Amino acid sequence: MIxxxxxxxxxxxxxxxxxxxxxxxxxxxxxxxxxxxxVGGGVAEILNRMVPLLNEVGINSGWDLIKGGQDFYSVxxxxxxxxxxxxxxxxxxxxxxxxxxxxxxIAKLDISGDIVFVHDPQPIALVEKKKGNKWLWRCHIDVSNxxxxxxxxxxxxxxxxxxxxxxxxxFSQRLAIRQFLISPSIDPxxxxxxxxxxxxxxxxxxxxxxxxxxxxxxQISRFDYLKDPLxxxxxxxxxxxxxxxxxxxxxxxxxxxxxxxxxxDEVMEKAGSDKxxxxxxxxxxxxxxxxxxxxxxxxxxxxxxxxxxxxxxxALWKAKPVVxxxxxxxxxxxxxxxxxxxxHSIEGAAFAIKQLLHSPDYAKKLGANGREHIKNNxxxxxxxxxxxxLFLSLYHPEDxxxx
Amino acid sequence: xxxxxxxxPFVFYASSHISELTGLRASTLGQLLxxxxxxxxxxxxxxxxRFLQQHQYLSPEPPNDFSYWVADCLGDxxxxxxxxxxxxxxxxxxxSLREKITATIEKHLEADPLAKMRFARSGEEFHFIxxxxxxxxxxxxxxxxxxxxxxxxxxxxxxxxxxxxxxRLRLEKQxxxxxxxxxxxxxxxxxxxxxxxxxxxxxxxxxxxxKIIYLIQKKSS
Lengths: 403, 221
What we know:
Chain A has helices at about 10, 15-25, 40-55, 70-85, 90-110, 150-160, 200-205, 230-240, 260-270, 285-295, 310-315, 330-335, 345-360, 360-375, 380-395, and strands at about 30-35, 60-65, 115-120, 135-140, 165, 180, 215-220, 245-250, 275-280, 300, 320-325, 340-345, 400. Chain A is α/β, with parallel strands linked by helices. The radius of gyration of chain A is 21 Å and the shape is globular. By secondary structure, chain B is of the alpha+beta class. In chain B, about 50% of the residues lie in helices and about 20% in strands.
């Protein structure tokens, strides 16, 4: 079990002291996190580590899940895509399914937090149970250009919260409640990010029959249209005309994402018989993800929309050169030509990959700068502190708060 | 040689921040100007100081968000340079700093009315954010300069940031807390002036820590 003091060598003693200090101002208030999945995706990953650490620093924290059937998660996936700006046919029946499942969860779920911290749209309607306590809505989605029908539907719930939290400034909207900007984070001590011995990395490559005889380009992501795996294969093909290289597309699927298998099938079809394309389904195998990232020469994240893009932070933490779409929270992590290369198209991604493969010193410098940027701004310790400050802000409306 | 013991001890504080979104955004220089006049002081403070804590090593960005956006997203290099070179140390309040920023933009618009025509492309709008500060005491207290040096070596850069930047401008104390204490409680005006004479906006916070330690040690030796 990882302890908060284990982060001292990375974050420094005084940072941990400050976390304990601000946590001490919570005066015994209980925080209850609620989301829709215990595994898969960035939210579950953060909560898995965040909740025990919050408890350790003295903030009584719990984590509950809502329940829903296939119908409900098909609707919430449609909502998710529509909020990201994708065309989706959404009708009254979808809203009815959402409301019906929400009603069941409202009836069954015990609300015990002084602060109830609801993550993403799936459990958003639980705010109907608000009774004198404080409610936070954490939106992990890129809602810079949302489908208005879905957004307006959610707005009826959002305005009942005390505050909302977004991952990037572009996601903010004019709201009647306070809204905060808090980036998610990576955990430097997790299996996905800790240092690995070379034997482990070599072992994972052997397991998947990947030979390091040519540069490795990797995208780690769920099989999801918004991550554009088909576009990644196209960019790889454009690079391959000039540079002999190989591509790894690796990821799992989340239990609340019914679309994953369909996307995976299309990816397999597009990859065809190319033996240099490795498509790996890795359900929750963090050590293997870590090893694949470390074995790669370039990490790509060619998302069409992105709530934040934690895989970019993971790659930069490993000092890897990254080529990524300039969407969502990615532009907070990569300053173009300083800590990575940003792209806006398949052709742009292919060009950037070629640039980096031809200029290894430049690629190395981008990776080193990227690691420093992640260390300063996107580690779990910063995230924990900001969440505690967010909790405190619920009781302090002023701009300068003396604790 | 002034006495090294202080009548009142120096308690090191630190401040931590979270960013509050306002939902206000600008796509043109005209919109930016109008919003800069209108947003709360906490937003002007955020956009002129955020870089200090986010880029603790060599910063790849100009020292304020307005300058960065005008140069990088509107392509107005000249105005970007004018905004970046505003000497924040010359201003004692957020209000006067805001007036200088608006005057710089207005002067540029008078000289080059076409500057109003530039648009940021979709997704690159300027988003106004407020800094919400939480101020709290740390465990470090100094009764003399020796203890002060030992403490300043250990406190977080957030503590140095608070006493140098936030206390002077946002809390309108007009001089940084270190110089204030060394000048009044320790009685060493010369050392106090040397520290307040540093231009902290052109140092990283770690550099600033080392510079202050160097000045005190040089004085004591």
